[in-house]
């Protein structure tokens, strides 16, 4: 399957608690493109990702489109966006295998071998709360494997991962982009994706 | 299995493991059993005061039973994932509250008849508890969602939500004495809570996410 969605942000200002935290971000992503948001801590990278996901209030325009056709943002946010945040979106009281089964059922897909792809098949019986930070990071990528969605919002995806884990993330992103998927990353360390656009953001 | 069934299964597993319902049910049984010791063994006094006290205990147990219903999901970023899903947040909250209600209700339905009988009250009180419990759990859950960003959420929760359970406190103890009216009002109390609370809860959670 291939994705044909594009994203364009025009002069987006993100607010938090009634104050602007990020001002005037404009960018556009065509199918298969990736953008790295860079900037120091507190510069609003995460806020920008949350605005695209519809989780933060913002001024300006965020438009999802297919060709010349503008798509309904509510539908896109329900069906075509994955966000992977450092919190992970995982219940600490479920085991790894239960998490995989839940995500599979929730997205209506078969989880299949996805745990193995993340190198977590041996941890299946452990509770998510008992995993190491890096293992939990890996598990938070599971939804990307289980359910294909056009736009990935990855907040510091390389943090806490070992070399093998970082390699898995890069491979996932490459496969996703080859299918025409879009990727927005918030990064503050030296990690970089070759062939991705870079956008420096600054706190308002 | 649909996304909703998956959510219900997950929620049931989490409820069973988180154990808030044990606290709620345990508190209800323990306070209910201790109250006669404080009031004294005069059967007439117990019969007159018992049902009223039992309803206050019920309210308190429900509040403490739903404490922590939203914190785990908020802190671990699950709420964000629910927003980015085909299931609306209000629907997901309805599932959460309904599962919490089932887990609290089942042990209460075991303990309540015994306590009512011990107090010399009418067993119709059990039906009243059954009718009023969705209203109590949904109301407490909504206030819990509002307080979930605060530390020390539980005391705040009890304090803010107590006025909202007045209908249950007024009409619950009258069950079995005043004909059909208390049951109708308790049923109505629960129906309005079921209709309104999932939306209020999802609005409260969105506020915390923003």
UniProtKB/TrEMBL annotation, chain B:
Its main location: membrane. It comes from the Bacteria. InterPro entries: Cyt_c_biogenesis_CcmB, Cyt_c_CcmB_bac. It is a multi-pass membrane protein. The chain crosses the membrane at residues 21-40, 52-70, 82-110, 116-141, 153-171, 183-205. It is found in: Cell inner membrane. Signal peptide: none annotated. Keywords: Cell inner membrane, Cell membrane, Cytochrome c-type biogenesis, Membrane, Transmembrane, Transmembrane helix, Transport. Belongs to the CcmB/CycW/HelB family. Required for the export of heme to the periplasm for the biogenesis of c-type cytochromes. This is Heme exporter protein B. It comes from Parvularcula lutaonensis.
């Amino acid at each position: 399957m291939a994705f044909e969605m594009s994203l364009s942000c025009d002069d987006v200002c993100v607010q938090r608690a009634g104050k602007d935290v990020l001002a005037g971000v404009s960018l556009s992503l065509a199918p298969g493109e990736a953008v790295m948001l860079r900037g120091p801590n507190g510069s609003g990278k995460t806020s920008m990702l949350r605005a695209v996901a519809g989780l933060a209030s913002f001024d300006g325009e965020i438009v999802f489109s297919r060709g010349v056709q503008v798509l309904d943002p509510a539908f896109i946010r329900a069906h075509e966006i994955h966000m992977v945040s450092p919190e992970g979106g995982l219940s600490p009281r479920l085991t790894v295998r239960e998490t995989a089964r839940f995500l599979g059922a929730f997205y209506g897909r078969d989880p299949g071998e996805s745990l193995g792809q993340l190198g977590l098949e041996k941890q299946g019986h452990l509770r998510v709360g008992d995993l190491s930070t890096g293992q939990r990071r890996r598990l938070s990528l599971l939804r990307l494997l289980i359910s294909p969605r056009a736009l990935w919002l990855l907040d510091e995806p390389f943090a806490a991962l070992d070399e093998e884990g970082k390699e898995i993330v890069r491979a996932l992103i490459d496969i996703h982009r080859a299918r025409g998927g879009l990727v927005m990353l918030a990064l503050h360390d030296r990690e970089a994706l070759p062939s991705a656009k870079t956008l420096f953001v600054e706190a308002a | 299995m649909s996304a909703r069934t998956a959510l219900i299964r997950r929620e049931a597993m989490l409820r069973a493991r988180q154990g808030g319902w044990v606290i709620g049910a345990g508190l209800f049984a323990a306070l209910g059993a201790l109250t006669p010791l404080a009031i004294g063994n005069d059967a007439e006094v117990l019969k007159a005061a018992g049902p009223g006290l039992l309803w206050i205990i019920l309210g308190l147990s429900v509040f403490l039973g739903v404490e922590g219903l939203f914190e785990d999901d908020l802190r671990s970023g699950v709420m964000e994932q629910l927003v980015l899903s085909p299931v609306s947040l209000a629907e997901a909250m309805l599932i959460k509250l309904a599962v919490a209600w089932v887990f609290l209700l089942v042990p209460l339905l075991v303990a309540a008849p015994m306590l009512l009988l011990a107090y010399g009250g009418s067993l119709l009180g059990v039906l009243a508890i059954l009718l009023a419990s969705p209203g109590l759990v949904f109301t407490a859950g909504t206030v819990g969602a509002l307080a979930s960003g605060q530390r020390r959420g539980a005391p705040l929760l009890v304090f803010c939500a107590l006025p909202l359970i007045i209908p249950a406190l007024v009409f619950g103890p009258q069950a079995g004495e005043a004909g059909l009216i208390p049951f109708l009002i308790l049923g109505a109390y629960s129906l309005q809570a079921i209709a309104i609370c999932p939306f209020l809860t999802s609005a409260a959670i969105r506020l915390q996410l923003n």
